[in-house]
């Protein structure tokens, strides 16, 4: 279990539009209590949201660093406006460790340590070689990656490999704001209606089955990705960092559960029961890793290579 | 320079139809997972690609090969073979998206012209500059999410050719990194090349209406005669706030035929017609309409070319999409 | 190709089924010779069976393909095993599809053709047919090739049928294009076509019987 306990837990960037106060308090509690090694901060989904939290950013960074957490600054996943590109440029030039989520950043961070976020496609060895050559020190694999992809890429990587293991799965980003559309508004006149849904807005099928979650311009899965029974196999494949994506649940407790599984201090069964209690009615999904539909839940261990 | 008309061909017959209808350039893909329209019965084998190139060159036109999916780890061979075969066929350029495939093409075939596929989702100056500086791409296919003003600004700054979508599906999501279809079907448009693969599409009559399903997910219900689109996840109806709506995009097609003058003024090099999965009849109809419109534009003629494309437009309705403000 | 068979059947539906079945087999052989890539391309697909069902004719046809093969059959039983997919539509729409003159997606979404069953099979068949440049008149002429003078006569007749079918397609086209096209009475036109087809069937049936007789004698003489 020693190798498992060396595995790092990370807290991915908060994808939802929480009020500045809620967001600040969330990160303070993460700094003080959560068993995570690294925290990603920054707006990934919509640049219109960015200014709200800006006044608290330094304060939160200091608190996390003081608590011994590595802090990584995440960029937007889709940039089209000059303002958006300029901010990414400024962030890269600030010397902060950056998670690049749009290829735009690669031009800026080349030659310096950086993280390749899950919104940049690294599906194969060729792409992996290109980004490592450019100085990437950690690669977060795309959410769609299956076990074969993880096995090959984590196995041969000369840098850290991260994989998301908890939270709604990011499925797409767009220019259009679907949250605004659902309120008969547009992105330009959105009134920040995404703030009304701190865990996203359910988009069900016409026959009433849950399938998607809307978060502004982003589309997520309706269920939470839960890779718990797979952790040991992923660690053996060479995954070094495991990402928990913040949801509107007790993330400190979620982190504690995952840490306990990594440390071998709890049985899988107990951990799953604990997590079920924390996630309520939200369905669990793990299909992508098992080579299935991303919305599927597969109740078995990963097959060995 | 006249706007270059870049047209789709899913089959050798469609390639000839496109050229006969006035395409300057035709793009097509190999018959496997290496291109983003990997549907059964579609695309070119190596011999057909070579014959297509020969036919086009005989008529003074060009052929581009789309090798624009993302290789799966452990199996880059089909993508490398596609690049090698395209080069051997005398193709005029390859359209690529994956960092590793771009790298391979540049190293192995430095003289083979490279275009950046829309699947790379390069939506801003810095992204395009990265691909230009790193892989020496000569042209970028811009995503369908930009306004005419944004296109014009990019053209001024990036110093390489731009190709923009003029007709076809409206893609509301950032392309090449949309996992909705694989989330529902388990088959990836990104690495396997088919969004909403036909094997997972079904229609069921429900008395007065038809249900379209993708995998186990019901995407739409439409009445007889109601416009509908092929059931990709982004063209479905979803329920939010108790209301079923086209949350992502209505069943409409992008048609920029009425704003060709604006696109030319913005400085774009080429207009792309989407639809390698569509029929020869579609190709002929759309290409000849755009040929007339471009020729009229070049003559400085003000006469509007009658826009008769609604019948082949998906859902039989049209939009100028993101080119006009308000779409977002 | 094989929406072509509805047309052959249009001309020959009065002929007893065994004779028609032989004609279908003959046409298939001719198509194999004239369009070798078609067979090759069908053979490259995963195995599938599709039924082609012209709504205005009494016959149905089956295409079976995959594993290097392609075969076309006239369906004679009342209840054949269910296919993977069915394409139903008017003779005119089916011929237009076959010749690649009209966009199948447009036809589908306006419900002029109806596709049921496996979407993969119907998409594969549609795409494979669309790879070939087929002109029905030429296929039919080739079918009657061995019978010189009667073939020319039949060819002229068939041209008339195809011509009428084309008129129908033009109307379909217009209908697809805009609602403001001067409205034509499609039903009347269909009736007219049906009457025409019926008359032709009778005449062709007579010719066919004579030709079959002549064919037995090495197909040399005119009747």
Automatic annotation (TrEMBL), chain A:
Keywords: 4Fe-4S, Iron, Iron-sulfur, Metal-binding, Ubiquinone biosynthesis. The keyword Phosphoprotein does not apply. It comes from the Bacteria. Pathway: Cofactor biosynthesis; ubiquinone biosynthesis. It comes from Rhodopila globiformis (Rhodopseudomonas globiformis). This is Ubiquinone biosynthesis protein UbiV. Its cofactor is [4Fe-4S] cluster. [4Fe-4S] cluster binds at residues 46, 177, 190, 194. Required for O(2)-independent ubiquinone (coenzyme Q) biosynthesis. Together with UbiU, is essential for the C6-hydroxylation reaction in the oxygen-independent ubiquinone biosynthesis pathway. The keyword Ion transport does not apply. Belongs to the peptidase U32 family. UbiV subfamily. Forms a heterodimer with UbiU.
Automatic annotation (TrEMBL), chain B:
It holds the Pfam family Peptidase_U32. Pathway: Cofactor biosynthesis; ubiquinone biosynthesis. One of its GO terms (biological process) is proteolysis. One of its GO terms (molecular function) is peptidase activity. It comes from the Bacteria. Required for O(2)-independent ubiquinone (coenzyme Q) biosynthesis. Together with UbiV, is essential for the C6-hydroxylation reaction in the oxygen-independent ubiquinone biosynthesis pathway. This is Ubiquinone biosynthesis protein UbiU.
TrEMBL record, chain C:
This is SCP2 domain-containing protein. It holds the Pfam family SCP2. It comes from the Bacteria. Residues 183-210 form a coiled coil. It comes from Rhodopila globiformis (Rhodopseudomonas globiformis). InterPro entries: SCP2_sterol-bd_dom, SCP2_sterol-bd_dom_sf. Residues 37-130 form the SCP2 domain. Keywords: Coiled coil.
């Amino acid at each position: 279990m020693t190798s498992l306990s060396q595995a790092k837990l990370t807290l991915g960037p908060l994808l939802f539009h929480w009020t500045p106060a809620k967001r600040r308090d969330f990160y303070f509690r993460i700094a003080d209590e959560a068993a995570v090694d690294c925290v990603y901060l920054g707006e990934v989904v919509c640049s219109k949201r960015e200014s709200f939290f800006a006044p608290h950013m330094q304060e939160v960074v200091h608190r996390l660093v003081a608590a011994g957490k590595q802090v990584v600054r995440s960029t937007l996943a889709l940039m089209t406006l000059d303002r958006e590109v300029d901010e990414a440029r400024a962030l890269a030039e600030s010397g902060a460790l950056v998670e690049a989520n749009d290829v735009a950043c690669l031009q800026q961070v080349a030659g310096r340590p950086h993280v390749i976020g899950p919104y940049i496609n690294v599906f194969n060895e060729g792409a992996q070689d290109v980004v490592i050559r450019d100085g990437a020190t950690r690669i977060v694999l795309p959410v769609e990656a299956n076990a074969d992809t993880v096995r090959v890429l984590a196995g041969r990587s000369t840098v850290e490999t991260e994989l998301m293991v908890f939270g709604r799965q990011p499925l797409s980003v767009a220019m259009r704001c679907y949250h605004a559309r659902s309120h008969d508004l547009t992105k330009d006149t959105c009134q920040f209606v995404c703030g009304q849904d701190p865990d996203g807005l359910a988009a069900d099928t016409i026959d009433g089955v849950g399938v998607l979650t809307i978060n502004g311009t982003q589309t997520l899965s309706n269920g939470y990705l839960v890779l718990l029974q797979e952790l040991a196999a992923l660690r053996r494949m060479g995954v070094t960092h495991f990402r928990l994506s913040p949801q509107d649940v007790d993330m400190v407790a979620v982190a504690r559960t995952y840490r306990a599984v990594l440390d071998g201090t709890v049985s899988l069964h107990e951990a799953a029961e604990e997590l079920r209690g924390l996630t309520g009615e939200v369905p669990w999904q793990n299909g992508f890793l098992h080579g299935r539909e991303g919305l599927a839940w597969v109740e078995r261990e990963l097959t060995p290579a | 320079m006249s706007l270059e008309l870049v047209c789709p061909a899913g089959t050798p017959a469609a390639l000839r139809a496109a050229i006969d209808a006035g395409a300057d350039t035709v793009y097509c893909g190999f018959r496997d997972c290496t291109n983003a329209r990997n549907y059964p019965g579609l695309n070119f084998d190596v011999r057909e690609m070579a014959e297509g190139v020969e036919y086009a060159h005989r008529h003074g036109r060009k052929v581009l090969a789309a090798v624009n999916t993302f290789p799966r780890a452990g199996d880059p061979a089909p993508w490398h073979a596609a690049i090698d075969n395209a080069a051997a066929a005398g193709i005029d350029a390859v359209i690529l998206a994956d960092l590793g495939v771009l790298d391979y093409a540049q190293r192995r075939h430095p003289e083979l012209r490279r275009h950046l596929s829309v699947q790379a989702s390069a939506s801003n100056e810095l992204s395009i500059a990265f691909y230009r500086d790193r892989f020496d791409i000569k042209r970028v296919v811009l995503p369908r999410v930009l306004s005419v003003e944004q296109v014009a600004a990019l053209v001024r700054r990036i110093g390489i050719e731009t190709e923009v979508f003029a007709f076809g599906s409206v893609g509301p999501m950032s392309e090449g990194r949309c996992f909705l279809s694989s989330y529902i079907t388990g088959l990836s448009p990104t690495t396997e090349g088919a969004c909403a693969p036909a094997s997972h599409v079904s229609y069921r009559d429900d008395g007065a209406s038809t249900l379209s399903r993708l995998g186990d997910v019901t995407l739409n219900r439409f009445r007889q005669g109601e416009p509908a689109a092929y059931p990709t996840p982004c063209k479905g109806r979803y329920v939010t706030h108790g209301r079923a709506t086209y949350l992502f995009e209505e069943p409409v097609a992008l048609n920029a035929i009425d704003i060709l003058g604006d696109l030319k003024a913005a400085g774009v090099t080429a207009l792309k017609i989407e639809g390698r999965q569509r029929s020869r009849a579609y190709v002929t109809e759309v290409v000849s309409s755009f040929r007339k419109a471009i020729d009229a534009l070049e003559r400085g003629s003000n006469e509007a070319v009658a826009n008769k494309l609604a019948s082949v437009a998906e859902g039989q309705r049209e939009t100028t999409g993101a080119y006009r403000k308000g779409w977002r | 190709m094989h929406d072509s068979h509805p047309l052959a059947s249009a001309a020959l539906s009065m002929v007893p089924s065994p004779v028609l079945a032989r004609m279908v087999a003959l046409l298939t052989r001719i198509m194999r010779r004239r369009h070798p890539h078609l067979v090759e391309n069908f053979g490259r697909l995963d195995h599938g069976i599709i039924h082609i069902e012209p709504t205005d004719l009494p016959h149905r046809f089956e295409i079976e393909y995959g594993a290097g093969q392609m075969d076309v059959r006239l369906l004679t039983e009342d209840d054949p095993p269910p296919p993977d997919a069915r394409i139903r539509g008017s003779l005119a729409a089916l011929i237009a599809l076959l010749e690649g003159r009209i966009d199948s997606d447009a036809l589908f979404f306006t419900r002029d053709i109806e596709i049921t069953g496996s979407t993969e099979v119907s998409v594969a068949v549609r795409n494979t047919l669309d790879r070939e440049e087929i002109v029905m008149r030429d296929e039919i002429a080739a079918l009657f090739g061995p019978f010189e003078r009667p073939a020319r006569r039949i060819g002229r007749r068939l041209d008339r049928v195809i011509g009428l079918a084309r008129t129908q397609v033009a109307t379909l086209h217009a209908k697809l294009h805009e609602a403001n096209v001067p409205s034509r009475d499609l039903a009347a036109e269909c009736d007219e076509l049906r009457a025409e087809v019926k008359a032709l069937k009778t005449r062709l049936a007579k010719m066919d019987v004579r030709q079959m007789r002549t064919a037995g004698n090495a197909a040399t003489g005119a009747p």
